Amino acid sequence: KAGVTQTPRYLIKTRGQQVTLSCSPISGHRSVSWYQQTPGQGLQFLFEYFSETQRNKGNFPGRFSGRQFSNSRSEMNVSTLELGDSALYLCASSLDPSPTDTQYFGPGTRLTVL
Amino acid sequence: AQTVTQSQPEMSVQEAETVTLSCTYDTSESDYYLFWYKQPPSRQMILVIRQEAYKQQNATENRFSVNFQKAAKSFSLKISDSQLGDAAMYFCACRTSLITTSGTYKYIFGTGTRLKVLA
Q1: B37, B45, B100: best mutation site toward chain A, by most A Cβ within 10 Å?
Q2: Which residues in chain A show pLDDT less than 70?
Q3: What pLDDT was estimated at residue B99?
Q4: A42, B109: Cβ pair inside 8 Å?
Q5: What is the DSSP letter of A99?
Q6: What is the distance between the alpha carbons of residues B48 and B60, in angstroms, rounded to a whole number?
Q7: B15-65: per-residue pLDDT in tens?
Q8: Residue A80, pLDDT score
Q9: What is the DSSP string of B29-67?
Q10: For residue B89, what pLDDT band results from cuts at 50, 70 and 90?
């Protein structure tokens, strides 16, 4: 079974631009979560989607948004990029949102904002 | 506010020896879950072990075990018979139950402990 895939793997943008990252979960998984990892702030939960609905959101500004499609694939969008948005963005999928269900992580998308 | 603290930025262990990574947390919720994740260099993060707060028995997964002290809000990870493949960044995390008083859950990670395994 294929793992979680994230595209693109690397991205360079400039301040003020917007970016869309994509995540394809493991087949059969309906829950997708997004995380931001930076050297300064560590690993932070962004949001979780289940059955095309946002179930939970972390403490991030409205510039960060996401969505989930009927095939469970998810995208996250960051508008008006700032230098501080440079980070590794991780996606994880699980069968459902239960904390007892194991999350499987993708390799991440490394975003650099210049 | 919910917090997770990993006070050891870096640890080293000799191959085949045992090492313990520390984690303390704070949450006002009564129902929560604790996790240890491993992130090897340039590789994907994986779940190492999970502990339900309502369970008194410490979780164990092969060479990995936890020492869960609920009253002290401590959740340390013990790695026995350390192997070179254990070298990674280890993250401790606390997630409240799906339904909380606010209708959402919180998922907080520690800053990580980099484990080096010496041959």
Answers
A1: B45
A2: 1
A3: 56
A4: yes
A5: T
A6: 10
A7: 999 999 999 999 888 889 999 999 998 889 999 999 999 998 999 999 999
A8: 97
A9: -SSEEEEEEEE-TTS--EEEEEEETT--SPPEETTEEEE
A10: very high
- Binned at pLDDT 50, 70 and 90, residue B103 comes out as low
**Strand B32-39 relative to strand A104-105: parallel, antiparallel, unpaired?**
unpaired
> Chain A residue with minimal CA distance to B107?
A45
User: 10 Å Cβ neighbour count for A96?
Assistant: 13
Residue A42: exposure state from Cβ atoms within 10 A (0-12, 13-18, ≥19): middle
> Which residues are registered as beta bridge partners of A89?
A36, A109
Rounded CA-CA distance B27/B107 in Å is 11
Residue B102, sorted as left (phi over 0), alpha (psi -120 to 50) or beta, turns out to be alpha
- Tell me the two tokens of residue B44: 């994907």
Q: What is the DSSP letter of A54?
A: E
Which residues in chain A touch residue B112, judged by CB atoms under 8 angstroms apart? 42-43
Question: How many Å lie between the alpha carbon of B106 and the closest alpha carbon of chain A?
Answer: 8
Q: Is residue B85 scored above 90 in pLDDT?
A: yes
- b/e for B49-71, b at 16 or more Cβ within 10 A? bbbbbeeeeebeeeebbbebeee
Q: Chain A residues with CB inside 8 Å of B95's CB?
A: 99
The confidence score (pLDDT) of residue B42 equals 81
Chain position carrying tokens 């609905």: A53
Tell me which residue of B17, B20, B38 sits closest to B77, measured CA to CA: B20
**Shortest Cα distance, chain A CAs vs residue B115, angstroms:** 16
